Amino acid sequence: MALDFTDKVVVVTGAGNGLGKSHALLFGARGAKVVVNDLGGSGSGEGSDASVADGVVAEIKASGGDAVANPDSVTDGDKIIQCALDTFGRVDVVVNNAGILRDKSLHKMSDDDWDMVYEVHLRGAYKVSRAAFPHMRDQGYGRFVMTTSAAGIYGNFGQANYSACKLALHGLSQTIAAEGRAKGVKSNTIAPIAASRLMGTVMDEDAMKLLRPESVSPLVAYLSHDSCDATGGLFEVGAGWISRVRWERSQGAFFDPAGFSPDDVEAAWEQINDFSDATHPTSPADTFRAIQANPHLNG
Ligand SMILES: NC(=O)c1ccc[n+]([C@@H]2O[C@H](COP(=O)([O-])OP(=O)(O)OC[C@H]3O[C@@H](n4cnc5c(N)ncnc54)[C@H](O)[C@@H]3O)[C@@H](O)[C@H]2O)c1
């Protein structure tokens, strides 16, 4: 049977354009009641235009779906969640997608460029999630999808502000996954690649055609569905490719915690960097287990 969202209330931030719009249309077509949030500003975060969210709501309704427009900034996340509660009475899914770009290399970065990107991507996702999480805990059900970026996972020239905030979103997601585990609340992170107005400046026309936002939304919908058990995951997705990314750790080298030198580190450098027999830690407990395996601690 097709995955269905009837009776589910889904909030998609930044749903007026690009990826968010594609997610919202898919949720709407699958029976969800959708809160289409979009401030309607420029790609670098200037201005606002409430009609941007209205247009997507009109599209969902024209196809027989149910949706409400919300023009607030994600930095007022509590207002967006209140809109979901006032209109539809609950909130089941939050897709944190809103974003802007203010690309500058670090030595040219202004505090304003840093702060704006932080406000929208990280503080905004925090505010929306903070407002939604208690309702999800109380009802014993909820799904979050955070939107990071390859720039966040790997770093990218000219995107110090963006990459820092984007990877932080995965940290937030992993902690929501931990705190929500016993309460039926799951959280995952996607790193999409899609043609959009944010990518228009860095991609040629042929690449833009291949990278449809509609190729990202099926993963977002699956991660948001009852039937999906994944939580704390990180997925790269684009142009019909979906892959999971995880941490990998070398076996490492042990030293005597009573005292060791930089020369000891140099001597063990190859072993520290040797990924044969690597492990894939998933929690701070795995770090403590590794530390406790130090033979110097065990006589
Ligand atoms: N397109 C890609 O290849 C790509 C790659 C990696 C990550 N991402 C991320 O995916 C997300 C969507 O990007 P997109 O490419 O669809 O861009 P987009 O510009 O087409 O859409 C982003 C939307 O967010 C809205 N928005 C911006 N600030 C907001 C705020 N304060 N409150 C509410 N809405 C706000 C904008 O009005 C816009 O409609 C972003 O978080 C972006 O960083 C995109």
Describe the model:
The chain has an 8-stranded mixed β-sheet, sandwiched between helices. Helix 1 (18-29) packs across helix 8 (217-223). The mean pLDDT is 96. The chain is of the alpha/beta class and 299 residues long. It is built from 11 helices and 8 strands. Helices cover 41% and strands 14% of the residues. It folds into 2 domains: 9-245, NAD(P)-binding Rossmann-like Domain (Rossmann fold, 3-Layer(aba) Sandwich); 247-299, Helix Hairpins, CATH 1.10.287.4290. The chain has helices spanning 18-29, 51-62, 77-88, 111-139, 150-154, 160-180, 205-210, 217-223, 262-267, 269-272, 284-292, and strands at residues 9-12, 33-37, 66-70, 93-96, 142-147, 185-192, 234-238, 241-245. The longest helix is centred in the middle third of the chain and has 29 residues, at 111-139. Nicotinamide-adenine-dinucleotide binds next to helix 1 and helix 4.
